[in-house]
Amino acid sequence: MAAKDIGARGLGATVRVRAEGDVDEGSLAHLRESLAHLREKVAAVLDRPGLPPASGEVRVVRAAAHHVELPWSAGAEIRLGNHLVVVHAREASARELADRLADRLRGNTDRVTHRGDATPKAAAPPPWRGGPGR
User: Fold this and answer.
1) Would you say 59 and 75 are in contact if contact means Cβ atoms under 8 Å apart?
2) What percent of the chain has pLDDT over 90?
3) Best CA proximity match to 46, nearest among 74, 73, 17
4) 122 CB contacts (<8 Å, ≥6 apart)?
5) CB 94 within 8 Å of CB 72
6) pTM of the full predicted structure?
7) Does residue 116 surpass a pLDDT of 60?
8) Which portions of the sequence form the region Disordered (predicted)?
9) Helix (H, G, I), strand (E, B) or coil at 50
């Protein structure tokens, strides 16, 4: 399986979007358009204010077999600050895959960032043990 690097435009140049697998010349233009859509979706999730800097990779694979029901699959491993966000998705079309992956990525990044905000507050001792409030 050959990997094709699609680049990281619009993602702060630290998140790469890659296509893996054999791609013929006829479907290359369609693949580039689909990956551009995926890149825009991922950038919209990761370039929000208040999120720590993101780095990592999104890999997209299309199954070579014709009989596969959900031929498009993607995996993302994104590091947000000290947290690792891992997301997987499988869909019938590249556009559906981009939408599903972006939804899952947004949910997981929200969960990680909210958990990260709550951790220092939860670690503080209660007031009767010398914590805040005394």
Assistant:
1) yes
2) 34
3) 17
4) none
5) yes
6) 0.71
7) no
8) 104-134
9) coil
